[in-house]
Amino acid sequence: MTAPLSAGPAPGPGPDDLLVDPSTVEEARRELIPRYGAASWRITFASANPSVGTADLHWDTFPDALREQLRHAGWVLLKFPVPDHLLNGSTRMRGHLSALRNHHTLIHWRCFAHWLDRRGITELAQVSESVLGDYSIHLVKERRLHRNTVASILGGLTRLHAHAPLLPESARIRQPPWETEGVDDYLPAATPTGENASEAINPATMGPLLVWALRFVEMFATDILAADAQAARLRAATAAAASDQRSRAAVAAYLADLEARGLPLPAHNRTGTVWAAKTYIAAITGAPLGVVSYALRAPRWRQYLAENPGPCPLDVPITATVDGQKWIDGIDFHDVAGLVQHLDTAAFIVIAYLTGMRPSEVLGLQAGCCPDPPARQGGTRRHLIRARVFKTAYDEDGNHLSAGEIRCAPWVAVPQVVTAIRLREARVDATGLLFAGDPTNQRPGGRAASYATLSRRIEQFVAWVNTHHGEDAIPADPHGNIGTRRFRRTLAWHIARRPGGLVALAVQYGHLRTIISEGYAGRQREGIHDILDLETARAVAEHLSDVEESLADGGKVSGPAARRLILAAHEQHRRFGGMVLNQRQAKALLSDPALTVFHNPEAYLSCNYDPAQAQCNPENLASQRKRPTTPSLDRCRPSCANIARTDSDASQLRERAQHIRYQADTALTPEPIAERLRHHARELIEIADRHERTRLGDKEPS
Ligand code: SF4
Q1: What pTM does this model have?
Q2: Do residues 337 and 404 share a domain?
Q3: 321: helix, coil or strand?
Q4: Which of 199, 271, 593, 686 has the smallest count of CB within 10 Å of its CB?
C-alpha cells in the first residue's frame, strides 16, 4: 500500500474514491477496500494474517469539529510511509504499521480528539507542545493508564506529527515534547514485572490441563473421530433418503416397537427443552427428516416423548481408558460436535504450550507445516515446524508484512505436538489453516479462529473435564481465565523453575529446555529464549536472595560448592537485590559464571553450575564448544562438584526420609519394596547428617 511521498500536502481523495489504489492490494481483498467518505472503514481490509479479525473505525464516533481533519490524517496514515529522515532518528518508528496497529493508532487519535473537543480545540493546528504535554499528564494522572498503553498513545501522536507535511496546515500538530526531551519523563514509572508480563498459569492448573489435553490428543482421539465419522454417515444417509411409503412405514414400525418394549424415545436437551432427535431417528430408520417430523407431530408420540426421553447412542466402541476405566461410557449423537471441539482445543493447548509459539503463530499454522524428517541412521529425528511469524515481519523498507514471513529458525516439535498437528491436518477446511475460524464468516485468504473463541473453548474444555471427571479435575487458576497468551510464559516459567516437575513428567521429557532450544542455535532471539532467559534469571535471583537471607539469619551451607554458593548469594544481593526486571539484567546475571546457581528442589540442592565439572552432561565435558549454558537438573548426579546444600535442603531431606519410612512401614507394602524404601531413607538421612557435620557459615573459612 506504500505510495510515493509528494513534496507537500497530499490533497484528500473524493468521498467515493477508494482509500488506496486497488493494484496495491491482493486481488482477493480488493472488494474490501473502503471508500474515503464511508461512515466506517474496515482497517484490516488488506491484512493477510489469518489471526487478525475485523477491526472497523466508525467516523460518527469522532467529534464533529475534528472528524474530517482526522479522516484526512487517517487516509495519510494508511497510504503513505513515515518520511525516511524520521525513520532514521531515535524514535524507532516503522514506515508502515500493521493493520491492527493502524487501528489502534486511529482509536488513540479519536480519544485525543474527544479530549481536545472538551477543551474547545477545533483544529489540529491549535495543538501546541504544551497541549500535548497536558495530554500526557491527563493519561498518567487522571486516566491512570499503564506505562505501555501511554507509550503506545504518545507514539500514535508522534506519528500524527510525522505525517504533518502531507496534511493541510490547519491539520498539523506541533512536535510532541517527548520527541525532544525523551519519552521516559512522560510515562508512568515502570512496574517491576513489566506491564505486558502475563501471569504464568499456576502449576496446579497447568499440570492437569496438559495431562487432559494429551489424553484427548493421544488417547481419546480415535474414539471421538470414529463417532464423528459415524454421525456424518448418519446425516448423509438421512439427506439421501426418499420420502415414500417404505420410509413412512419404517418410522411407524420403529416408534411402535419402542412403545411396545417400553424403550425411551431418542431425544436431546436444548436450552432446557427436550426435543425429539429427528435426525438420529431418521438416520436409523432410513427415512428423510420430513417423514420423521410429520410422524412425531402426533399427540401420541409427543406424550410418549415427554414421559420417555432417552439418549442417542452411537455404535462406536470406547477403546481409551483412564485409570483402567473407560474415559466415557458411550458417545451420544448430539455430543459428537462438542467432543470434536474439545479435541481441537486440546490440540491447540498441546501445540501452544509445548512449542512456546506465540498464539498468532499457532493460529497461522497450515497443513504441511511439520513434514516428517528424512530417516537418519542413529541419533534422534526431530520434527520441525515451519511457522509464519507476524509480529516481527517487516520488509526492507520497514513496512509491516501482514501475511507474515516464514521464520528463519523453525520450532521444534516433540512427538505429542506432531500428533496434535496430524490430527488437525487430517481435517482442515479449504483455508488450509489448522485452526480455521467459523466457515460462515470466512474472508479471502482464510481466517483463523479468534483469540476470544479459543479462550472460551479452553474454558469449555476445562468445564467438560471437571463435569465428567471431577475426581481428577483441573483446578481454577488464581489469576483467572487461562486464555491463549499465557502458555508461552508458562512454558518458560516451568522450564526455569520446575525442570523435572509435573509438566515435564506429563510429556516424559525432563530436559524440555534442551529439546525446545534445539532449533535455535545461533538465532536465539527468534524463539522462546528471551522469555526463557528472563524467567531463568528471575528464578536464580530469587533463590540466591533466599540463601542470602538465610545466611544473614545464621544459616549455613555444605557441599563441595558451599563457598561458591555463599559468594554468589552476596554478589547477587549486591548487584541485583533479588530482582531481575528486564532482559538486560537477565543477560548480565546469566553471563556471570559466579552467579549461575540453580535451585534443584527435587534433589534438595543448589547447583552452582560450572559446565566443566557438570556430571549431568558428561558427553559435553570433552568439548568446550558444546558445553550447555544451563545444567540438566533432571539428570543431576549426587557426586557432582557443583553441589551445595542449605539448612532448608537438609531439613527437607529429613522430612522426605520420614515420609519414605512411613510408606515402608505400612502393612500393605511388600517386604522387598519396604526394604528398598528404608535403604533410600537411610541414604537421605546420611546426606542430611553430612550437612550438619560439614556446614559452613558466612564468616567461616572454607
Ligand atoms: S550434576 Fe547436578 S549439580 Fe552437577 S551440574 Fe548437573 S545439575 Fe548441577
Answers
A1: 0.70
A2: yes
A3: strand
A4: 271
